[in-house]
């Protein structure tokens, strides 16, 4: 059973799919009452999500919904975590990001591939909200071409020495630990790539200035530099030669990303449905005009298509990793849907949609960020064709 306790105490304690709707209601209430009133200020002032609020989400059990029960998590299906992410993201992306990162982010790599010692050391503080783990993949010259990364993590006896730099790291400078993808030997391409956890306070770890992004304003992003950073060999989660498993687990993060986009589209649709029925022009509500009806129908079609693709991709996630084709279809569709639907919402709101007061411009700005993160729609299309045809394409030729 899932224990739903409002006003404090654990929200998630175990699995019961019948109570997913109740979990959704609790998450929606939390978003509307606690985070919606602060979301605009956090965006305007570029304020990072407060640590005490992250710990509050941990107390509610929301940071460990899809993580193992033996370490304090809920042990629930991934869909439960995606439900909470969507409801929080409709009102406040920085709040939703905490649930996103802990349930669909690099903690999943640790939970699935890490040693028992790593489980015990890293997962409980993530689940409680006392610590965060961010993923560090992209580099200045290796974004979509991830296998071009140059950061190295070289074994030297009982330690690993990390050198290199990472770019576009969400929660960069804020997270306590980083799951760093790095080259661990001299093999070409993906064969050398593995992943090691680097604590933020290790000597030699430094951060660039926080990026001033178009959206994502309550979610810090910064470069990371590693200069002869030494970590114990026990921090290696996956060694070289297991790149496919690393990116298989990253598909779970892409489902979280797609759900963020879904939330943006759904929020824009919900606000527009209310607005066109309340706003009068030429003596009648906007919804009475056929063009408005056609636009609303297109918005709903796109939102529901994205929702169904996400649900299909997430349904197969348990002990097994998600189907990469299903994930790419879901992410590409959801990312592009969010951009289109938030734009249409602004158009149907007219001049009001262009103001900060109605919050649609914030939805639209954030929609572009989620489309860029975790693999752009263009790269997802390449993956879609590759999976569909069962062959790879060398983009370097």
Structural notes for this entry:
49% of the residues lie in helices and 14% in strands. It has 397 residues and is an alpha+beta fold. It folds into three domains: 17-128, Acyl-CoA dehydrogenase/oxidase, N-terminal domain (Butyryl-Coa Dehydrogenase, subunit A, domain 1), CATH 1.10.540.10; 133-238, Butyryl-CoA Dehydrogenase, subunit A, domain 2 (Beta Barrel), CATH 2.40.110.10; 243-389, Butyryl-CoA Dehydrogenase, subunit A, domain 3. The strands form three sheets. It has a four-stranded mixed sheet. A hairpin with a 2-residue loop joins strand 9 and strand 10. Helix 4 packs antiparallel against helix 7 and helix 7 (243-278) packs antiparallel against helix 10. Mean pLDDT is 93; it is low at 1-8 and 11-15.
Describe the secondary-structure layout:
Blueprint: H1 20-44, H2 51-59, H3 78-91, H4 93-104, H5 106-113, H6 116-128, E1 133-136, E2 152-156, E3 159-170, E4 177-183, E5 193-199, E6 205-207, E7 221-232, E8 236-238, H7 243-278, E9 280-281, E10 284-285, H8 290-315, H9 324-348, H10 360-372, H11 377-389
Parallel strand pairs: 1-4
Antiparallel strand pairs: 2-3, 3-7, 4-5, 5-8, 6-7, 9-10
């Amino acid at each position: 059973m899932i224990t739903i306790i409002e006003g404090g105490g654990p929200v998630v304690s175990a699995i019961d799919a019948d109570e997913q709707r109740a979990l959704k209601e609790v998450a929606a209430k939390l978003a509307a009452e606690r985070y919606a009133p602060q979301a605009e200020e956090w965006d305007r002032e570029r304020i990072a999500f407060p640590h005490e609020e992250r710990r509050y989400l941990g107390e509610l059990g929301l940071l460990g919904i899809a993580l193992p029960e033996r370490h304090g998590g809920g042990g629930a299906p991934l869909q439960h975590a995606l439900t909470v992410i969507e409801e929080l993201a409709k009102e406040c992306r920085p709040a939703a990001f905490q649930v996103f990162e802990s349930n669909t982010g690099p903690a999943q790599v640790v939970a699935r591939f890490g040693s028992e010692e790593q489980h015990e050391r890293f997962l409980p503080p993530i689940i409680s909200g006392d610590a965060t783990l961010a993923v560090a993949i992209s580099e200045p010259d290796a974004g979509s071409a991830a296998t071009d990364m140059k950061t190295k993590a070289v074994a030297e006896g009982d330690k690993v020495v990390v050198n290199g730099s990472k770019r576009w790291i969400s929660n960069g400078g804020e997270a306590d630990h980083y799951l760093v993808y790095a080259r661990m030997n001299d093999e070409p391409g993906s064969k050398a790539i593995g992943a090691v956890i680097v604590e933020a306070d290790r000597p030699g770890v430094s951060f660039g200035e926080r990026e001033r992004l178009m959206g994502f304003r309550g979610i810090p992003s910064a470069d990371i530099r590693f200069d002869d950073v030494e970590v114990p060999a026990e921090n290696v989660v996956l060694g070289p030669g297991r790149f496919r498993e690393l990116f298989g687990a990253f598909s779970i993060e892409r489902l979280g990303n797609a759900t963020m986009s879904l939330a943006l589209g759904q929020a824009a649709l919900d606000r527009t449905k209310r607005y066109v029925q309340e706003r009068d022009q030429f003596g009648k509500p906007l919804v009475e005009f056929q063009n408005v009806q056609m636009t609303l129908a297109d918005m709903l079609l796109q939102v529901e298509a994205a929702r169904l693709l996400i649900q299909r991709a997430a349904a197969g996630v348990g002990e097994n990793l998600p189907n990469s084709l299903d994930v790419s279809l879901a992410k590409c569709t959801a990312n592009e849907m969010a951009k289109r639907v938030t734009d249409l919402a602004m158009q149907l709101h007219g001049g009001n949609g262009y103001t900060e007061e109605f919050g649609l411009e914030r939805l639209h700005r954030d929609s572009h960020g989620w489309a860029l993160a975790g693999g752009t729609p263009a790269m997802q299309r390449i993956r879609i064709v590759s999976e569909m045809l069962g062959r790879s394409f060398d983009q370097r030729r």
